Amino acid sequence: MKQEQEESVAAVRKAVDVAVGVLVERDAQGREGRFLLTSRPVGKVYAGYWEFPGGKLEAGESVEQALARELHEELGITIGSAHAWQELTMDYEHARVRLHFCKVYEWSGEFEMREQQAMAWQELPVQVQPVLPGTIPVLDWFAAERGFVGATYLTGAEA
Length: 159
Ligand SMILES: Nc1nc2c([nH]c(=O)n2[C@H]2C[C@H](O)[C@@H](COP(=O)(O)OP(=O)(O)OP(=O)(O)O)O2)c(=O)[nH]1
Hints:
It comes from Roseateles oligotrophus. GO terms for molecular function: 8-oxo-7,8-dihydrodeoxyguanosine triphosphate pyrophosphatase activity; 8-oxo-7,8-dihydroguanosine triphosphate pyrophosphatase activity; 8-oxo-dGDP phosphatase activity; 8-oxo-GDP phosphatase activity; metal ion binding. InterPro entries: MutT-like, Nudix_hydrolase, NUDIX_hydrolase-like_dom_sf, NUDIX_hydrolase_CS, NUDIX_hydrolase_dom. Residues 15-144 form the Nudix hydrolase domain. By secondary structure, the protein is an alpha+beta fold. The chain has a single domain, classed as Nucleoside Triphosphate Pyrophosphohydrolase. 21% of the residues lie in helices and 32% in strands. It has helices spanning 3-11, 63-75, 136-146; strands spanning 16-26, 32-39, 50-51, 54-56, 78-79, 82-91, 96-104, 107-108, 119-122. Strands 1, 2, 3, 4, 6, 7 and 9 form a 7-stranded mixed beta sheet that branches. A two-stranded antiparallel ribbon has the order 5-8. The termini are far apart.
């Protein structure tokens, strides 16, 4: 392929839809508290980076269906309602992804890390690192909602 053609193909790279679950704890007054991050499993791109659990939509699936399936497959839990929250397109070298972030307040079952990933309930600023590039805007949205000021995550340069 000629270089100009390659560039135009890259420019219109189709985004892959990804359903992402933002599990949030709430207190008796409905105030939001800790949220769940999981680390990307060995063998995937960005292995070891922290993100919100989720995965790609399969053919014919809605965001809610994909989210329920992925969270069951990866974490062993059954989720209640998924509340559409934010959407974001990220252009990685490996793929262009359209992330559909949904807040989830209800789930049942014991957490099981079925892909040998790790999980961590976090507050701002997030203590686990490194965080995936696509996670950083989510922390900014949380900061805006919660009136949190300052760095939302650690970079490793703090010590
Ligand atoms: N799960 C998840 N993926 C995210 C987040 N932020 C972000 O940029 N991504 C990107 C990373 C990946 O390119 C893509 C998700 O794809 P994936 O490879 O984890 O999905 P999957 O579990 O369906 O993977 P596979 O079966 O194809 O291996 O979205 C996030 O917070 N959670």
